[in-house]
User: What shape does this take?
Amino acid sequence: MAKTKNEQSDKNHKKVVAENRKARHDYHIDDVFEAGMVLKGTEVKSMRQGRVNLKDSYARIKNGEVFVYQMHIGPYPFAYYGNHDPLRPRKLLLHKREIKRLYGKVNEKGSTLVPLKVYFKNGKAKLALALAHGKRKYDKREAIRRRDEQREMERTRKKYTSNY
Assistant: This one.
């Protein structure tokens, strides 16, 4: 039986659980990778409830494997026993060639791995991992100034177009 258009679009549906907005403010994003995560059952249930915090989280490559640190997944409230440690390091699933590429880039001066968002794709927990380098203070000020100018231009454009 052929699938309808709605069934096909549901298959690629992404449900964003948590986003690291501070990362886009503090870093220049060079490249983004999608990684699977090795999780326990209570972690998945907690993530589905939105109990995830990516603030101050980072990723490191250790022995040819990528781990994310300081990602807080709150305890699942309905677990009787066997609840997980909220801040435990979690292994990320990437292809070997992606890990080698990341390893080469991270060893460059100033580059780091930053988690951008956690989401469910086709029922699987995924993490958007960014290869980034830090912004300087004047870069942040420049971005804020540019955003304020854009907002002001949009305001004046609306003001003059609404009159006609």
The first strand starts at residue 14 and ends at 19. The two ends are 53 Å apart (CA to CA).
